[in-house]
Amino acid sequence: MNVPASGGELPRQQNGPDGDLPLRTLRARWRAASLAAGWRFPSDWALPEVDAVCAAVLRGAGPEPSLAGLARARAAAGAELEEVFADLAALQAVLAQPDSDDGFVVPDLGTTPAQLITATALAWADAALDQIANIQVIDPLTGLATAAYLRTRLDELYRGSEGRGRRAADDHTLLVVSLDLTTMTGWRRVTGMILVAEAMRAALDGGESLATLGPSTSVAVLRRDDTLPSKAVLLRRALHQRLSSDAYIAQIGRPRIRLVRLPATHESACDLLRELGRA
């Protein structure tokens, strides 16, 4: 059934006897509906805050605090408000149509309680404005530089290359490390990225710029010289050593490591970082 827009609650889901099975089922249906509604980057959807929202719904608790937490996390990950609203509408559609076993639902923000839309919008805006006013240099989770700092560092590289009559891509390249964390939830996602950061610091200790770009992606800016192949090999070994040491994280498979060429302009490089962080 649909919930009137003037209401303040999402439909309640009944919990079951199978541990966290109801939570996993709700999360899977929500993700499928959100992707069908246009969520652009599947790998960055399953944030830990998603589980908090699912748990609140299953308990029949007011979802506003957990939805606000998710909205802030979405803003920090680079999701636009339009996407966040579409994701909220997908959750509403899934809960309003519990008998849709095939996962086909039609998200409609107009059927979502206005109180929840407001809580989501305010939290997203608060986080987005905070990012602008307080740009951090170090990501507190991984200890790597933030994407904001990396953009500044790349600006220096581009200006330096232009001053020498060269292109930034002639002297530097991006080494991108991505994990497929779509099956991981909660602290396990966090653990995976912490282990990646440790491996990058261990293998790339020659002054390279290391940064985290999103919930499942980190990057290094490397010089294009004779040491590049050996550094990539060292990083792969370090990643294997650390990720395989955790039984749960080892289930996600090998991380994706690739070299990505820097584009012609700094503006294009910033666009590239946003895409990489959400791919």
Reported CATH architecture of the largest domain:
2-Layer Sandwich
Q: Approximately what portion of the residues adopt beta-strand conformation?
A: 5-15%
Structural class: alpha+beta
Give the total of domains: 2
| Overall number of strands | 4
Which spans have pLDDT < 50 for at least 5 consecutive residues?
Answer: 1-8, 14-18
Instruction: Estimate the helix proportion, in percent.
Output: 40-55%
* CATH homologous superfamily caption of the largest domain: Reverse transcriptase/Diguanylate cyclase domain
User: What is the average per-residue confidence, as pLDDT, rounded to a whole number?
Assistant: 85
Round the Cα radius of gyration to an integer and report it.
Answer: 21 Å
Form type: globular
How many alpha or pi helices?
Answer: 10
The order of strands across the largest sheet is: 2-3-1-4
Encode the helix/strand succession as letters: HHHHHHHEHEEHEH
Largest sheet: 4 strands, antiparallel
Q: Whole-Å distance between the termini?
A: 34 Å
Organism: Amycolatopsis rhizosphaerae
Protein name: GGDEF domain-containing protein
